[in-house]
Amino acid sequence: MSMYFSKEHEWVKIDGSQATVGISAHAAHELGDITFVELPQVGKTLKQFDTLAGIESVKAASDIYAPVSGKVVAVNDKLEDAPELVNESAEEEGWICRLEVANAADVSALMDAAAYAEYLKGLE
Amino acid sequence: MEDLKATPLREHHEGLKALMAPFGGWLMPIQYAGIIAEHKWCREKAALFDICHMGEFLFQGDIVADGLDDVFTFSVQNIPVGRSRYGFLLNERGGVIDDLIVFRLAQDQVMIVVNAATIDNDFAVIRSRLKEGANLTDISQRTGKLDLQGPLSREVLVELFGPEIGSIPFFKFIKTTILGVEALVSRTGYTGELGYEIFIPAHKAVELWEQLLKDPRVAPAGLGARDLLRLEVGYSLYGNDLDENTTPVAAGLRNFVNLDKEFVGKNALVEEQQRGPERVKVAFKVTSRRSPRHHYEIWREGAAVGTVTSGAFSPMLGCGIGLGFVTPDASALGTKLSIRHERVEMEAEVVELPFYTGGSLRA
C-alpha cells in the first residue's frame, strides 16, 4: 500500500482500486482543536482536487480536496461525534472517507512521504 | 508590519511553546496546550492569563468638580470605595469608544481599566472631557495584570497570599501585599467562573506568574481560550460585538447605562430608545457542531437580516454559538435563523444569554 500527499495537505493511501483519504498530521496540528468534519455524501463522484469535505477547528474553517478522482464509497462516521480523532490520529483513525479510484495515474500529481516532508520544510 | 508591543512575560510564553499572534497591537499568547484543553482547565480548575496588555489610567482629584462623573454611562461618584463598575465611554452618536471597568480606590482616586487596542484614544478622549488641569495619568506601562480564573482560583490565592482574598465579594476588590509590593486584587473576570484580576507593578508580573504556575491546580491559558470562555457566557468583545457604530441600546447592554445622569452620547441613546434601534444584538445556537464566525451573514426566511459578530464551537454546549446584529423583526427568542458564508450554511435559533449557565462566577 502506498501513501501520497497533496500540496493542500490531504493524504491518500491506495490499496488496489480503493483510496482512503484524510488530512496530514501537520495540517491537523496547524488547525488546532478540530470541532467539526463535514463528511462527503456516499456515492458522490469527484474529480481530482474538487472540494471533497469541510473541516472546522477552533481557529478556522477549511476545505478538503479530493487527492484523486473517484466515487465516495464510505465515510468515517465516527468523526460526526468525535472530530477530535483527526487531531489524535490524523493519518490512521482520523481518516475521512474511502474513494473508488477512477484514475490510478492521478497519483503522479501528488508527493510521496519523503517529498511531502521536504515540502513541509520549505513552508517553515 | 507595525511594531508589536510585548508584555513582560513574552519570553515565558515562548518558553512554554505558546503560539503567539498579534492582538490589538500586542504580540500575545493565543494558546499553550490547546484552546479546548485550556478552556476546560478554566471551567474546572484555575487558569492563568497574561493580561498585561490592557490599559490602566489613574485619576486623582475631585470626581464631580473635575468632570469625571459625566464621562461614562454610569456615575463614578456613586461607586462605593472598594467596588468597581462596568460601563461605556461613548461618542456623540452614542457609539461605544470603549467598554471599561472603573475601580473606586478612594474618595478622590479611581483606576480606569480599558482595552489594549484603545488605550491611546481612550486616554485622549477622557482627558478632553475633564476640566483643564485635572490629574489623569496613563499607568499602563508600569502596571502588570494577571487574571486567575476558575473554581479553584480562590483556594489557590488564599493559600499563597492569605485569607483576606477569600472574602472578596463579586465586583469588589482589596489592596493587599503580594510578593512584598502593593497589589490590587479584584473579584472580576471575563470567563463566567469564580476568578480574580490581579494588578501588580509590571516588574513583579514575572515573579507572580512563576509563583502561580508552580501550583499544580494552575495552568496557563491564552487569548483563544479566553475568547471561547467569554462567548459562552455572552460577554461582548470590543472590536467584534461593540464598536463606535454600535450603541449600548442596540447591543442589549442598557443595564450599564444610567440615563438619569449626564454623559456624552446620552441624547443619541434617548432618541434611539424612543424610535427603536435599527439593529439589535441576538444570541443564537447552531443546530450542529458547526462554528459561526465573525462576518458570516445571518438570514431569515430567505432574506439577509444581519451579521455575525462573534462565533465559536462551544465545548460546554457541544454546538456552535454566536452573537450577531439583526433587524429587530428577526430578534425574538426562538426565531429560526440561517447562518451563511460561501458554501457553508447552518441552521440556528435565537436564544437567551448566557449560553452556559453552569459557571462558578458567584460561588
From TrEMBL, chain A:
Q: How is the cofactor bound?
A: Binds 1 lipoyl cofactor covalently.
Q: State the similarity comment.
A: Belongs to the GcvH family.
Q: Does the keyword Electron transport apply?
A: no
A Pfam family that this protein carries is: GCV_H
Q: Which organism is it from?
A: Geomonas limicola
Record's keyword terms, sorted: Lipoyl
Query: What does the record give as cofactor?
Result: (R)-lipoate
Put simply, this protein is called Glycine cleavage system H protein
The lineage's top-level taxon is Bacteria
From TrEMBL, chain B:
Cite the binding residues for substrate: E197
Record keywords: Aminotransferase, Methyltransferase, Transferase
State the signal peptide span: none
The UniProt catalytic activity note for this protein reads: N(6)-[(R)-S(8)-aminomethyldihydrolipoyl]-L-lysyl-[protein] + (6S)-5,6,7,8-tetrahydrofolate = N(6)-[(R)-dihydrolipoyl]-L-lysyl-[protein] + (6R)-5,10-methylene-5,6,7,8-tetrahydrofolate + NH4(+)
Instruction: Please give the InterPro entries that the UniProt record associates with this protein.
Output: GcvT, GcvT/YgfZ/DmdA, GcvT/YgfZ_C, GcvT_C, GCVT_N, TrmE/GcvT-like
An annotated GO cellular component of this protein is:
cytosol
- State the gene name recorded for this protein: gcvT
Q: What is its EC number?
A: 2.1.2.10
Report domain Aminomethyltransferase C-terminal positions.
282-356
Q: Where is the GCVT N-terminal domain?
A: 10-261
Provide the GO MF annotations for this entry. aminomethyltransferase activity; methyltransferase activity; transaminase activity
For this entry, the protein name equals aminomethyltransferase
